[in-house]
Amino acid sequence: MSQDVHVLIPNALRSQAGNLSSVSVQATSIRDALDALCTQFPELKARLFKDGQQLNRFVNVYLNDEDIRFLKHLDTEIHGGDEISIVPAIAGG
Prior knowledge:
By secondary structure, the protein is of the alpha+beta class. It is 18% helix and 27% strand. The model has no long low-confidence stretch (mean pLDDT 92).
């Protein structure tokens, strides 16, 4: 059953997400949540995914402050009230 989850949108991606800082979506997994987000804001898909299926390597996603790479990645289950944070990696020297 889909649950309402809160997705935080970073400054770098807000112009592709209607200038919103957060969006609520209904989903059962991280993949479902990001798909729902990209359906609502199609311009985000190219920024988040490299082939439509895998996250770009410079995009980090956290579920309640836990990196999904250490959970079940995009297949990580989510529950009502969870918070998903999208964090673009920052390079510099």
